[in-house]
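tokens incoming
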């Protein structure tokens, strides 16, 4: 037990030395706030051990956990260890101490999100071989090329289709209409394109080579066939990604507390086209969050009829959130964030003391206050860390003194 007393006494000496250092700096440099005022205390709610704050006691005494006296918790959230700080006006001026008022009003949140242009996954077309075939020729295209709808890509010879066409052409010479219609439907069931059937019927001859064309305008994502290749039914011949519409996916911080309205419009700008603004429509907020960046993905659709927006381009999205209800707010720089939560330094009747607050995020430099402050109160917006440190030091000294005085 004596050893514990020695340790506590040493802590008191260290704290006293720190306080002496603060006093010396205030006397010689005028840079630290400081004289401590009396604690304003209300009715005692309960007593507790600061080392085990979740355990409450209904009367004072010695802590069963540590060799120290229990600390009272007063109404209004203050404890015996809390303290206020009085600052001389001259020192406050030297510190550049600045106050800001707690206000209530409607805030319009404006966020600039960063993202990139991506292809519209709903506009990707995959071209596959409908039957086993041989590649007779490949037109002059390569992956990455932009092609127009109807552009010729690959020439295929499909033996199965040639035999079926021969039977169909033979029927065209004298069979009745019902039999010809049935034969035509049989060709469609085998996978022959309607335009190939029409050419065979119009020319009454077998079309031995089928030319695969681009079904939409866009960029060739894959194009791996070569002349002379044999391809199986279902083999992928090419992939075409449409560019008439693109997606812009932007990172939305989950701490922003904004749920964008699907169908709402946003302004999109690109580094490649800095003088232009594009209108985008919000189509969704993806459900999965990034674990590393703690962001959500906002998906925006942008029309791209001229094809100037290319996948991979860097983009910025201007997101507006017009709040309809007034909220309590204060300058964001006045809020101190730490391991004990958020707090501010409140000026009350000429005295400064820390007050715990619950915040609801920042909006254009203003911190939304959900609990802990009232409209019209004044809090410190600069030099608040020095005042908070001084208050914590005084509270530590007050908690240690009873332990040293005990026999």
């Amino acid at each position: 037990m004596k050893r514990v007393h020695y340790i506590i006494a040493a802590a008191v000496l260290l704290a006293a030395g720190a306080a002496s250092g603060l006093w010396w700096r205030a006397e010689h440099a005028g840079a630290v706030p400081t004289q401590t005022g009396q604690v304003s205390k209300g009715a005692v709610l309960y007593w507790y051990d600061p080392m085990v704050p979740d355990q409450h006691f209904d009367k004072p005494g010695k802590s069963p956990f540590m060799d120290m006296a229990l600390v009272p918790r007063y109404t209004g959230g203050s404890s015996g260890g809390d303290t206020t700080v009085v600052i001389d006006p001259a020192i406050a001026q030297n510190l550049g101490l600045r106050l800001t008022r707690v206000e209530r009003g409607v805030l319009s949140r404006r966020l600039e999100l960063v993202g990139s242009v991506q292809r519209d996954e709903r506009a990707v077309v995959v071209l596959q071989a409908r039957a086993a075939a041989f590649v007779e020729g490949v037109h002059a295209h390569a992956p990455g090329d932009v092609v127009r709808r109807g552009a010729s890509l690959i020439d295929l010879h499909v033996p199965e289709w040639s035999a079926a066409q021969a039977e169909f052409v033979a029927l065209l010479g004298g069979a009745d209409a019902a039999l010809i219609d049935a034969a035509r439907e049989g060709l469609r069931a085998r996978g022959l394109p309607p335009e190939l059937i029409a050419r065979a019927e119009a020319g009454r001859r077998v079309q031995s080579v089928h030319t695969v064309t681009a079904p939409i305008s866009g960029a060739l994502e894959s194009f791996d066939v070569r002349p002379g290749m044999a391809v199986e039914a279902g083999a992928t011949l090419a992939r075409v990604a449409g560019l008439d519409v693109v997606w812009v996916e932007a990172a939305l911080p989950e701490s922003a507390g904004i749920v964008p309205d699907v169908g709402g419009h946003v302004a999109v700008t690109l580094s490649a086209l800095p003088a232009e603004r594009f209108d985008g429509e919000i189509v969704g907020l993806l459900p999965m969050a990034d674990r590393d960046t703690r962001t959500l993905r906002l998906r925006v659709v942008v029309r791209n009829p001229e094809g100037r927006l290319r996948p991979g381009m860097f983009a910025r999205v201007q997101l507006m959130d017009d709040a309809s209800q007034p909220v309590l707010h204060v300058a964001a720089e006045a809020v101190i964030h730490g391991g004990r939560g958020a707090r501010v330094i409140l000026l009350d009747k000429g005295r400064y003391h820390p007050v715990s607050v619950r915040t609801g995020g920042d909006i254009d430099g203003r911190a939304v206050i959900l609990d802990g402050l009232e409209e019209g109160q004044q809090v410190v917006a600069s030099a608040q860390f020095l005042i908070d440190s001084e208050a914590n030091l005084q509270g530590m000294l007050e908690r240690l003194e009873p332990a040293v005085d005990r026999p």
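note: The radius of gyration is 38 Å.
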